[in-house]
Design goal:
single chain; mainly beta; Jelly Rolls; 3 domains; 3 helices; disordered C terminus
């Protein structure tokens, strides 16, 4: 009696239409595979809270020992607690909002606002005021020190008064206004005037002599702030001790990578010098991720890498530089994303499906290795429906989520298999610890809890073939764990259209392990395929399947009688 058994399920593989093994799925929705190879009803997705207006940004993480969930909607910033209660923190203006953490603060950025939140206070950021020149003589000659900051119109200049001069020249021309003047660190209370054409400041009396004792803060209008505020994505990268924030996906400068610098020797997210940017290739940047000590930069069809290199500038100072080199001129990332890294291998979407990038500094087409071949036909169908694409890594479950137009194609990289979830329409997918958060309209949703979920889970095998020929299906046995209310339906379907359906309803208040035995009684069933439908709000884990078949003895007896009659 031929037996088909599945003791370890391996997920979807649609490259084969027929199989001898019962553990390979042709389709699998809202069911996951455990580390032990069992089928398990997936976790539920629940609405955590709703805000007024569409949610335009989301962040989750910890500041110190406190966990925060922050969201922007209706031009305001909200803090949401674990029970879903939202409290308004402050006004930040409308528009798509970027969040990132740096040096113990959360930074909030949209096209018209830049601020930070330390867990208690929301502060709007003007930007670090750079010290553009030091050791300057009254005639303006001195040593260049810090570059202009793209975030602010203001700059500082330090001069060394000679005790005689009343006229001091600034480093730039066409100054808009003087913001402040200090002498020896104290505010200068005397009178002075500015000649905007010559950029000279005239004092009513000579300033006492001193080394760098006169500091003038002035303002000169610029339009560079939008270079930073229009960026839609961010990532942290840098050397061993001075991390930098890298910003990209600015629609007006789509192939530019901007990065922060040290402000007075300290890492800062408020200082983006005018020359701290790189033009990457000739097409928009879609993703930047870190791999070991390197930064991988992707456009749609190319890949580059960068790293932190210490160089000596013209003043003899050691500074960080981030040179860029080509890695692959045929593959990149086809959509904008923050990116994911699995076992130190970045993941991107290429023309041949999802790829993992190996660690190498040599340009080679083998840098990117495709791993989504088992479901590429489903991916292609979903990608044709729109461009709502996201990546998220739920490390607690070893699950990579590739969300495409409401479907989550899940790669369990712990055991190397694929399955699919639905109900993931939305944006802003963020993972913190063991929870996946995302938004849809005005709602914030979370996916984390095992247990009750009222949806249909479907597992369907490939067509099963056997060298024994056309057999009858005698029985089905399955070992399961159940808790709560569950409805199970086993559907056998033959290639010629015959169908046998058997259902089981279970209701268990406490967790229970049991064996289900059914008799489909389906004649001439090969090739056949088996579908399992799971409904109800309870929990279910299916550990094994065994389908018994038997050869068609009756046909043999008929043949024997015919031979005897002829004799």
């Amino acid at each position: 009696m031929p037996i088909h058994t599945a003791n370890g399920f391996v997920g979807i593989d649609r490259r084969r239409k027929a199989d001898k093994a019962l553990n390979v799925a042709h389709d699998m929705r809202n069911i996951r595979i455990t580390a032990g190879g069992s089928l398990e009803k997936r976790a539920k997705t629940k609405l955590l809270c709703s805000l007024t207006g569409e949610i335009e940004g989301l962040w989750c993480g910890s500041l110190g020992d406190i966990t925060f969930l922050l969201a922007s909607a209706n031009g305001r910033l909200y803090k949401i607690d674990s029970s879903g209660n939202a409290r308004e923190i402050g006004v930040i203006g409308g528009g798509a909002c970027l969040f990132f953490e740096f040096c113990g603060r959360v930074y909030i950025m949209n096209s018209a606002y830049y601020g930070s939140y330390d867990g208690s206070t929301l502060t709007e950021i003007e930007g670090y005021i750079p010290l553009v020149a030091v050791g300057c003589l009254p005639n303006g000659e001195g040593t260049p020190y810090e570059e202009i900051n793209m975030l602010t119109d203001k700059r500082r200049q330090r001069l060394s008064p000679d005790g005689k001069s009343i006229l001091y020249k600034l480093a730039e021309e066409d100054i808009d206004e003087i913001v402040s003047v200090t002498v020896g660190g104290a505010v200068y209370n005397g009178n002075y005037s500015l000649n905007r054409q010559t950029s000279e400041l005239s004092f009513e009396q000579a300033i006492p002599a001193g080394l760098d004792s006169l500091e003038i803060t002035y303002k000169k209008q610029s339009t560079t702030r939008k270079n930073i505020l229009n960026c839609k994505r961010a990532m942290l990268f840098g050397g061993n001790s001075d991390g930098r924030i890298f910003l990209y996906c600015n629609p007006e400068k789509p192939n530019c990578r901007f990065y922060s610098a040290l402000a007075d020797g300290v890492p800062s997210a408020e200082y983006f010098p005018v020359n701290c940017y790189t033009v990457i290739g000739s097409s928009p940047i879609s993703c930047i991720v870190q791999q070991y000590d390197r930064q991988l930069i992707f456009t749609k069809n190319e890949a580059f890498y960068s790293y932190c290199e210490l160089i000596t500038d013209n003043s003899g100072r050691r500074i960080s530089s981030f040179p860029v080199f080509s890695l692959n001129n045929g593959k990149g990332c086809l959509f904008e994303t923050d990116g994911c890294v699995i076992a130190n291998r970045p993941v991107t979407l290429c023309g041949d499906g999802l790829n993992m990038w190996e660690s190498t500094g040599v340009e080679n087409e083998k840098n990117a290795l495709p791993f989504s071949q088992p479901i590429n036909d489903l991916l292609a169908t979903s990608l044709l429906q729109g461009e709502s694409l996201h990546l998220a890594d739920l490390q607690s479950e070893s699950e990579l989520f590739f969300i495409a137009n409401g479907n989550a194609f899940v790669y369990n990289y712990g055991i190397g298999c694929w399955y699919i979830y639905d109900g993931f329409g939305g944006k802003g997918f963020k993972v913190y610890r063991d929870t996946l958060y995302f938004t849809n309209g005005s709602g914030i949703y979370c996916y984390s809890e095992r247990g009750e979920a009222n949806y249909v889970g479907i597992w369907q095998s490939n067509y099963i073939v056997d060298e024994g020929g056309n057999l009858d299906i005698v029985s089905l046995c399955s070992d399961i764990r159940v808790k709560g209310n569950i409805r199970l339906k086993f559907i056998f379907e033959t290639a010629n259209g015959a169908i046998s359906e058997k259902g089981v309803e279970l209701s268990e208040e406490s967790e229970k392990y049991m064996r289900i035995s059914l008799r489909p009684a389906l004649k001439r069933a090969l090739p056949f395929r088996l579908s399992i439908h799971i409904e109800g709000e309870g929990e279910l884990t299916l550990h094994s399947l065994t389908v018994k078949t038997r050869k068609k003895e009756r046909s043999r007896r008929i043949g024997l009688l015919q031979r005897e009659a002829k004799a």
